[in-house]
């Protein structure tokens, strides 16, 4: 695996962003809208509850973390779709580039774009609504890392789906975070879910993250058992996502399906 070729994939995304304001704006525009919308909603809800309970860290903090997960996933998929839209995917694999090098480049791109989104969200939530993650201490950082790892895994899976089904499957990957969110308890404890949904939730790393974050907000401290389980699950999902993408790619090459992503294709 060559780190130079991996960095080249990420560098290409940087040049695309640098040359297009339309690509830069979505990095922070949509997350800013979410923070503003949910921020004012939490302030409105605070006006109806007794003193001592604050919706800002409970709801707005959850929105920030879930948006971060979405930014990580979309960072991977958007970088991949840029190659699909430009019909440049086949050109990469006409070179000595390997699958881990290409996927690693997509991950590096996501690291940069998701970091930009996270900084904007934290600054906006702190400046406008007084949400400070520093008050929770460094205990929150491992849980953010788990969301990052799971976002990477979901992004790789989404790329594999497009690679297998074709560019028309693009519509399927954008709502994936919304489909997952009811199972992971972003805004409510997992105990409110029916039993069958709780079983699914136990297999998803974010469910442990949000349960632990709610404990931190209530002053109960982080669940290190939950962190361990969620971390192992996230690493397992990344391994499975890598195997899934590799299998789909090899199938596309063997059957000739990858030709539909070539520059010469017109269909």
Features:
73% helix; mainly alpha; 12 helices; 267 residues; single chain; globular
The gist of it:
This protein is mostly helical. It is built from twelve helices and no strands.
Describe this protein's structure:
The protein is mainly α and 267 residues long. The chain has one domain (3-261). The protein has helices spanning 3-18, 21-24, 29-46, 55-85, 89-92, 99-129, 140-165, 170-173, 176-184, 195-201, 205-217, 224-255. Helix 3 packs parallel to helix 6 (99-129), helix 7 runs antiparallel to helix 11 and helix 7 packs parallel to helix 12 (224-255). The longest helix is centred in the last third of the chain and has 32 residues, at 224-255.
Assembly context of the chains: single chain
Quick check: average pLDDT?
83
**Rg for CA atoms:** 20 Å
Separation of the first and last Cα atoms:
33 Å
Measured by DSSP, the beta-strand proportion falls in under 5%
- Compressed to H and E, one letter per element, the order equals HHHHHHHHHHHH
Helix content: over 70%
- The counted number of beta strands is 0
- Class based on secondary structure composition and strand pairing: mainly alpha
Shape: globular
Instruction: Enumerate the spans where pLDDT stays under 50 for 5 or more consecutive residues.
Output: none
Number of helices: 12
Largest sheet: none
Total domains: 1
What's the arrangement of secondary structure elements?
Layout: H1 3-18, H2 21-24, H3 29-46, H4 55-85, H5 89-92, H6 99-129, H7 140-165, H8 170-173, H9 176-184, H10 195-201, H11 205-217, H12 224-255
